[in-house]
Protein backbone atom coordinates (compact mmCIF):
# COMPACT_ATOMS: atom_id res chain seq x y z
CA UNK A 1 0.00 0.00 0.00
CA UNK A 2 1.32 3.43 -1.00
CA UNK A 3 0.71 6.53 1.16
CA UNK A 4 1.50 10.18 0.46
CA UNK A 5 2.01 12.27 3.62
CA UNK A 6 1.59 16.01 3.03
CA UNK A 7 3.20 18.36 5.56
CA UNK A 8 2.50 22.06 6.23
CA UNK A 9 4.87 24.52 4.49
CA UNK A 10 5.81 26.61 7.52
CA UNK A 11 8.70 24.67 9.08
CA UNK A 12 11.45 22.36 7.90
CA UNK A 13 11.01 18.74 8.92
CA UNK A 14 11.95 17.76 11.56
CA UNK A 15 10.95 21.06 13.11
CA UNK A 16 13.63 22.83 15.15
CA UNK A 17 11.09 25.16 16.71
CA UNK A 18 7.54 25.15 18.08
CA UNK A 19 5.50 22.87 15.83
CA UNK A 20 3.04 20.33 17.21
CA UNK A 21 1.49 19.51 13.82
CA UNK A 22 4.89 18.91 12.24
CA UNK A 23 5.95 16.65 15.09
CA UNK A 24 2.89 14.39 15.09
CA UNK A 25 2.77 14.21 11.28
CA UNK A 26 6.40 13.10 11.18
CA UNK A 27 6.03 10.49 13.92
CA UNK A 28 2.85 9.12 12.32
CA UNK A 29 4.52 8.76 8.93
CA UNK A 30 7.50 7.00 10.52
CA UNK A 31 5.24 4.49 12.29
CA UNK A 32 3.25 3.78 9.12
CA UNK A 33 6.54 3.11 7.35
CA UNK A 34 7.64 0.74 10.15
CA UNK A 35 4.35 -1.15 9.77
CA UNK A 36 5.21 -1.98 6.16
CA UNK A 37 3.48 0.80 4.21
CA UNK A 38 5.29 2.54 1.39
CA UNK A 39 5.40 6.17 2.50
CA UNK A 40 6.30 9.16 0.35
CA UNK A 41 6.25 12.73 1.69
CA UNK A 42 5.68 16.32 0.60
CA UNK A 43 7.80 18.59 2.82
CA UNK A 44 9.20 22.14 2.76
CA UNK A 45 12.56 22.70 1.09
CA UNK A 46 15.50 22.13 3.43
CA UNK A 47 13.78 19.27 5.29
CA UNK A 48 15.75 16.13 6.13
CA UNK A 49 13.52 13.05 6.12
CA UNK A 50 15.48 9.81 6.12
CA UNK A 51 12.77 7.14 6.27
CA UNK A 52 10.61 8.10 3.27
CA UNK A 53 10.59 6.09 0.04
CA UNK A 54 10.46 9.33 -1.92
CA UNK A 55 10.55 13.04 -1.05
CA UNK A 56 8.91 15.93 -2.87
CA UNK A 57 9.86 19.46 -1.88
CA UNK A 58 7.62 22.51 -1.75
CA UNK A 59 8.46 26.15 -1.10
CA UNK A 60 9.13 26.98 2.55
CA UNK A 61 6.75 29.68 3.83
CA UNK A 62 8.23 30.96 7.11
CA UNK A 63 5.56 32.85 9.03
CA UNK A 64 4.89 34.88 12.12
CA UNK A 65 2.18 33.28 14.27
CA UNK A 66 1.86 36.16 16.71
CA UNK A 67 -1.56 37.74 17.15
CA UNK A 68 -2.91 40.02 19.87
CA UNK A 69 -6.17 38.12 20.25
CA UNK A 70 -6.64 38.89 23.96
CA UNK A 71 -7.85 42.42 23.23
CA UNK A 72 -11.40 42.89 24.52
CA UNK A 73 -12.30 45.31 21.71
CA UNK A 74 -14.06 43.20 19.06
CA UNK A 75 -13.00 45.46 16.18
CA UNK A 76 -9.33 45.33 17.24
CA UNK A 77 -9.53 41.56 17.57
CA UNK A 78 -11.02 41.28 14.08
CA UNK A 79 -8.24 43.47 12.66
CA UNK A 80 -5.65 41.37 14.51
CA UNK A 81 -7.14 38.21 13.05
CA UNK A 82 -7.02 39.60 9.51
CA UNK A 83 -3.37 40.49 10.05
CA UNK A 84 -2.82 36.96 11.36
CA UNK A 85 -4.35 35.48 8.19
CA UNK A 86 -2.05 37.66 6.12
CA UNK A 87 1.04 36.64 8.10
CA UNK A 88 0.15 32.95 7.81
CA UNK A 89 -0.22 33.22 4.02
CA UNK A 90 -3.83 32.05 4.32
CA UNK A 91 -4.92 33.74 1.09
CA UNK A 92 -2.23 32.15 -1.09
CA UNK A 93 -1.34 29.12 1.01
CA UNK A 94 -2.60 26.41 -1.32
CA UNK A 95 -0.58 27.60 -4.33
CA UNK A 96 2.53 25.67 -3.27
CA UNK A 97 0.49 22.45 -3.24
CA UNK A 98 -1.16 23.15 -6.57
CA UNK A 99 2.29 23.34 -8.14
CA UNK A 100 3.54 20.10 -6.59
CA UNK A 101 0.33 18.25 -7.51
CA UNK A 102 1.13 18.99 -11.15
CA UNK A 103 4.44 17.14 -10.73
CA UNK A 104 3.07 14.08 -8.93
CA UNK A 105 0.77 11.40 -10.28
CA UNK A 106 -1.68 11.41 -7.37
CA UNK A 107 -3.65 8.50 -8.81
CA UNK A 108 -0.82 6.12 -7.96
CA UNK A 109 -1.41 6.52 -4.20
CA UNK A 110 -3.83 4.39 -2.21
CA UNK A 111 -4.16 7.04 0.51
CA UNK A 112 -3.19 10.68 1.02
CA UNK A 113 -2.89 12.19 4.51
CA UNK A 114 -3.07 15.97 4.28
CA UNK A 115 -1.77 17.63 7.45
CA UNK A 116 -1.49 20.90 5.51
CA UNK A 117 -5.28 21.29 5.30
CA UNK A 118 -6.49 24.80 6.19
CA UNK A 119 -10.11 25.53 6.92
CA UNK A 120 -10.70 28.96 5.43
CA UNK A 121 -13.45 28.47 2.86
CA UNK A 122 -11.22 29.34 -0.13
CA UNK A 123 -8.66 26.75 0.99
CA UNK A 124 -11.30 24.06 1.53
CA UNK A 125 -12.28 24.32 -2.12
CA UNK A 126 -8.69 24.59 -3.29
CA UNK A 127 -7.59 21.43 -1.47
CA UNK A 128 -10.62 19.51 -2.72
CA UNK A 129 -9.42 20.32 -6.24
CA UNK A 130 -5.75 19.53 -5.58
CA UNK A 131 -6.01 16.14 -3.85
CA UNK A 132 -8.48 13.35 -4.82
CA UNK A 133 -11.13 13.82 -2.15
CA UNK A 134 -12.29 10.18 -2.05
CA UNK A 135 -8.92 8.94 -0.79
CA UNK A 136 -7.55 11.94 1.14
CA UNK A 137 -7.81 12.43 4.90
CA UNK A 138 -8.09 16.20 5.39
CA UNK A 139 -6.74 16.45 8.94
CA UNK A 140 -8.46 19.00 11.18
CA UNK A 141 -5.85 20.41 13.53
CA UNK A 142 -7.92 23.36 14.75
CA UNK A 143 -9.61 23.13 18.13
CA UNK A 144 -13.02 24.34 16.91
CA UNK A 145 -12.88 23.91 13.14
CA UNK A 146 -14.42 26.64 11.05
CA UNK A 147 -15.72 23.82 8.89
CA UNK A 148 -18.35 22.80 11.47
CA UNK A 149 -19.97 26.23 11.23
CA UNK A 150 -20.48 26.13 7.48
CA UNK A 151 -23.76 25.09 5.86
CA UNK A 152 -23.28 21.59 4.52
CA UNK A 153 -24.07 22.76 0.98
CA UNK A 154 -20.87 24.85 1.06
CA UNK A 155 -18.63 21.84 1.77
CA UNK A 156 -17.34 19.88 -1.24
CA UNK A 157 -19.23 16.61 -1.58
CA UNK A 158 -17.29 13.48 -0.68
CA UNK A 159 -14.53 15.20 1.28
CA UNK A 160 -13.13 13.05 4.13
CA UNK A 161 -12.22 14.72 7.41
CA UNK A 162 -9.79 13.39 9.97
CA UNK A 163 -11.08 14.56 13.35
CA UNK A 164 -8.46 14.44 16.08
CA UNK A 165 -10.97 14.13 18.90
CA UNK A 166 -14.32 12.43 19.39
CA UNK A 167 -16.22 15.69 20.04
CA UNK A 168 -15.32 17.10 16.61
CA UNK A 169 -15.94 13.69 15.04
CA UNK A 170 -19.52 13.56 16.36
CA UNK A 171 -20.21 17.16 15.29
CA UNK A 172 -19.09 16.35 11.75
CA UNK A 173 -21.15 13.14 11.64
CA UNK A 174 -24.24 14.97 12.89
CA UNK A 175 -23.84 17.40 9.98
CA UNK A 176 -23.88 14.42 7.62
CA UNK A 177 -20.20 14.74 6.69
CA UNK A 178 -17.81 11.86 6.15
CA UNK A 179 -15.31 11.73 9.00
CA UNK A 180 -13.10 9.42 11.01
CA UNK A 181 -11.83 9.87 14.55
CA UNK A 182 -8.07 9.87 13.90
CA UNK A 183 -6.24 11.03 17.03
CA UNK A 184 -2.57 11.80 17.35
CA UNK A 185 -0.17 9.59 19.24
CA UNK A 186 3.33 9.92 20.61
CA UNK A 187 6.56 7.98 20.28
CA UNK A 188 7.45 6.22 23.57
CA UNK A 189 10.74 4.26 23.66
CA UNK A 190 10.40 0.73 25.04
CA UNK A 191 13.03 1.30 27.72
CA UNK A 192 11.57 4.55 29.07
CA UNK A 193 11.15 4.81 32.84
CA UNK A 194 9.59 7.65 34.86
CA UNK A 195 11.92 10.05 36.67
CA UNK A 196 11.82 11.04 40.33
CA UNK A 197 10.11 14.46 40.42
CA UNK A 198 11.72 17.70 41.53
CA UNK A 199 9.73 20.31 43.45
CA UNK A 200 8.23 22.36 40.59
CA UNK A 201 5.28 22.55 38.23
CA UNK A 202 5.57 23.16 34.50
CA UNK A 203 3.57 24.96 31.82
CA UNK A 204 4.41 24.33 28.16
CA UNK A 205 2.77 26.19 25.30
CA UNK A 206 2.55 29.44 23.40
CA UNK A 207 2.64 32.47 25.68
CA UNK A 208 -0.71 33.85 24.62
CA UNK A 209 -4.06 34.51 26.24
CA UNK A 210 -5.71 31.47 24.67
CA UNK A 211 -3.20 29.04 26.21
CA UNK A 212 -3.80 30.51 29.67
CA UNK A 213 -0.29 30.81 31.18
CA UNK A 214 -1.63 33.57 33.45
CA UNK A 215 -3.94 30.94 34.94
CA UNK A 216 -0.99 28.58 35.41
CA UNK A 217 0.75 31.35 37.35
CA UNK A 218 -2.36 31.83 39.52
CA UNK A 219 -2.60 28.10 40.23
CA UNK A 220 1.08 27.81 41.18
CA UNK A 221 0.81 30.81 43.49
CA UNK A 222 -2.19 29.30 45.26
CA UNK A 223 -0.30 26.03 45.68
CA UNK A 224 2.88 27.87 46.72
CA UNK A 225 4.86 25.82 44.20
CA UNK A 226 7.56 26.92 41.81
CA UNK A 227 6.40 27.22 38.19
CA UNK A 228 8.55 26.87 35.08
CA UNK A 229 7.10 28.34 31.87
CA UNK A 230 8.28 27.12 28.45
CA UNK A 231 7.11 28.41 25.08
CA UNK A 232 7.44 31.19 22.50
CA UNK A 233 5.83 34.56 23.14
CA UNK A 234 2.98 35.02 20.65
CA UNK A 235 1.32 38.01 22.32
CA UNK A 236 3.94 40.52 23.42
CA UNK A 237 1.63 42.92 25.25
CA UNK A 238 -0.14 40.07 27.02
CA UNK A 239 3.25 38.76 28.22
CA UNK A 240 4.28 42.21 29.48
CA UNK A 241 0.98 42.79 31.32
CA UNK A 242 0.14 39.37 32.76
CA UNK A 243 3.26 37.17 32.90
CA UNK A 244 6.42 39.27 33.20
CA UNK A 245 5.45 40.94 36.53
CA UNK A 246 5.52 37.53 38.24
CA UNK A 247 8.82 36.27 36.82
CA UNK A 248 11.39 36.32 39.62
CA UNK A 249 13.34 33.12 38.76
CA UNK A 250 12.42 31.70 42.16
CA UNK A 251 8.66 31.26 42.23
CA UNK A 252 8.09 31.75 38.50
CA UNK A 253 10.79 31.10 35.91
CA UNK A 254 10.43 31.63 32.16
CA UNK A 255 12.83 29.58 30.02
CA UNK A 256 11.60 30.90 26.69
CA UNK A 257 11.53 28.84 23.54
CA UNK A 258 13.87 25.91 24.17
CA UNK A 259 14.90 22.87 22.13
CA UNK A 260 12.98 19.58 22.28
CA UNK A 261 15.78 18.00 24.31
CA UNK A 262 15.87 20.85 26.83
CA UNK A 263 12.08 20.76 27.12
CA UNK A 264 12.08 17.02 27.83
CA UNK A 265 14.77 17.36 30.50
CA UNK A 266 12.62 19.85 32.42
CA UNK A 267 9.27 18.19 31.73
CA UNK A 268 10.15 14.67 32.89
CA UNK A 269 11.16 15.87 36.37
CA UNK A 270 8.14 18.09 37.03
CA UNK A 271 5.68 17.16 39.76
CA UNK A 272 2.90 17.84 37.28
CA UNK A 273 2.07 19.63 34.06
CA UNK A 274 -0.37 22.53 34.42
CA UNK A 275 -2.82 22.64 31.50
CA UNK A 276 -4.91 25.81 31.33
CA UNK A 277 -5.94 26.25 27.70
CA UNK A 278 -8.88 28.62 27.32
CA UNK A 279 -9.23 27.58 23.69
CA UNK A 280 -10.64 24.06 23.02
CA UNK A 281 -7.40 22.48 21.74
CA UNK A 282 -8.14 19.72 19.27
CA UNK A 283 -5.60 17.22 20.57
CA UNK A 284 -3.01 18.90 22.83
CA UNK A 285 0.42 17.42 22.12
CA UNK A 286 1.73 18.69 25.44
CA UNK A 287 -0.61 16.31 27.29
CA UNK A 288 0.78 13.36 25.34
CA UNK A 289 4.33 14.51 26.06
CA UNK A 290 3.74 14.77 29.81
CA UNK A 291 1.93 11.45 30.19
CA UNK A 292 4.56 9.69 28.06
CA UNK A 293 7.09 10.55 30.79
CA UNK A 294 4.77 9.47 33.60
CA UNK A 295 4.07 13.10 34.56
CA UNK A 296 0.47 13.61 35.75
CA UNK A 297 -1.61 16.60 34.64
CA UNK A 298 -3.30 19.29 36.74
CA UNK A 299 -5.87 20.78 34.39
CA UNK A 300 -8.34 23.62 34.34
CA UNK A 301 -10.94 21.95 32.16
CA UNK A 302 -11.09 23.54 28.68
CA UNK A 303 -14.34 24.25 26.83
CA UNK A 304 -15.57 21.52 24.55
CA UNK A 305 -14.90 20.29 21.97
CA UNK A 306 -11.39 19.43 23.10
CA UNK A 307 -9.09 16.44 22.83
CA UNK A 308 -8.41 16.86 26.53
CA UNK A 309 -11.44 14.69 27.26
CA UNK A 310 -10.14 11.87 25.04
CA UNK A 311 -6.62 11.92 26.46
CA UNK A 312 -7.19 12.40 30.18
CA UNK A 313 -8.99 10.39 32.82
CA UNK A 314 -8.95 10.60 36.61
CA UNK A 315 -6.13 8.07 36.93
CA UNK A 316 -3.62 10.35 35.16
CA UNK A 317 -5.18 13.85 35.23
CA UNK A 318 -6.79 15.85 38.00
CA UNK A 319 -9.13 18.49 36.63
CA UNK A 320 -11.87 20.95 37.48
CA UNK A 321 -13.55 24.00 35.96
CA UNK A 322 -12.82 26.11 39.04
CA UNK A 323 -9.31 27.10 40.17
CA UNK A 324 -10.08 26.94 43.90
CA UNK A 325 -11.59 23.48 43.62
CA UNK A 326 -8.72 22.38 41.40
CA UNK A 327 -6.01 23.48 43.82
CA UNK A 328 -7.87 21.78 46.68
CA UNK A 329 -7.20 18.48 44.89
CA UNK A 330 -3.41 18.83 45.17
CA UNK A 331 -3.07 15.69 47.31
CA UNK A 332 -4.74 13.72 44.51
CA UNK A 333 -1.89 14.70 42.18
CA UNK A 334 0.71 13.62 44.74
CA UNK A 335 -0.98 10.23 45.09
CA UNK A 336 -0.78 9.38 41.37
CA UNK A 337 1.77 6.67 40.59
CA UNK A 338 4.09 7.80 37.77
CA UNK A 339 4.69 4.22 36.59
CA UNK A 340 0.93 3.79 36.13
CA UNK A 341 0.76 7.04 34.15
CA UNK A 342 3.50 5.84 31.80
CA UNK A 343 1.80 2.46 31.40
CA UNK A 344 -1.48 4.20 30.55
CA UNK A 345 0.31 6.28 27.91
CA UNK A 346 1.96 3.22 26.34
CA UNK A 347 -1.33 1.29 26.13
CA UNK A 348 -3.55 4.15 24.96
CA UNK A 349 -1.53 7.04 23.52
CA UNK A 350 1.51 5.52 21.81
CA UNK A 351 1.50 5.67 18.02
CA UNK A 352 1.48 1.88 17.75
CA UNK A 353 -1.70 1.72 19.84
CA UNK A 354 -3.41 4.64 18.09
CA UNK A 355 -2.59 3.40 14.57
CA UNK A 356 -3.90 -0.10 15.26
CA UNK A 357 -7.06 0.97 17.13
CA UNK A 358 -8.11 4.04 15.14
CA UNK A 359 -6.18 4.52 11.92
CA UNK A 360 -6.18 1.00 10.48
CA UNK A 361 -10.01 0.59 10.50
CA UNK A 362 -10.33 4.02 8.82
CA UNK A 363 -7.73 3.18 6.18
CA UNK A 364 -9.41 -0.14 5.43
CA UNK A 365 -12.79 1.61 5.09
CA UNK A 366 -11.45 4.14 2.58
CA UNK A 367 -9.66 1.47 0.57
CA UNK A 368 -12.81 -0.67 0.47
CA UNK A 369 -14.98 2.25 -0.70
CA UNK A 370 -12.46 3.37 -3.30
CA UNK A 371 -12.26 -0.01 -5.02
Order of helices and strands: EHEEHHEHEEHEEHEHEHEHEHEHHHH
What is the CA-atom radius of gyration, in angstroms? Answer: 21 Å
Number of strands: 13
Strand content: 15-25%
Q: What quaternary form is this?
A: single chain
N/C terminus separation: 13 Å
Q: Which structural class best describes the helix and strand composition?
A: alpha/beta
Largest sheet: 7 strands, parallel
Helix count, per DSSP?
A: 14
User: Which strands sit side by side, in order, in the main sheet?
Assistant: 3-2-1-4-5-6-7
Assign a percent range to the helix content: 25-40%
Low-confidence stretches: none
- How does the overall form come out from the CA principal axes? globular
Mean pLDDT rating: 89
In short:
The chain is α/β, with parallel strands linked by helices and 371 residues long.
Q: If you had to describe this structure to a student in words, what would you say it looks like?
A:
The protein has 371 residues and is of the alpha/beta class. It has 14 helices and 13 strands. It has helices at residues 20-34, 74-87, 95-101, 121-130, 166-174, 213-223, 236-243, 260-267, 285-291, 308-311, 323-327, 330-334, 338-348, 351-370, and strands spanning 2-6, 38-44, 54-58, 111-114, 136-140, 160-163, 178-181, 200-204, 226-230, 252-256, 272-275, 297-300, 317-320. The strands form two sheets. Strands 3-2-1-4-5-6-7 form a seven-stranded parallel sheet, with helices on both faces. The mean pLDDT is 89.
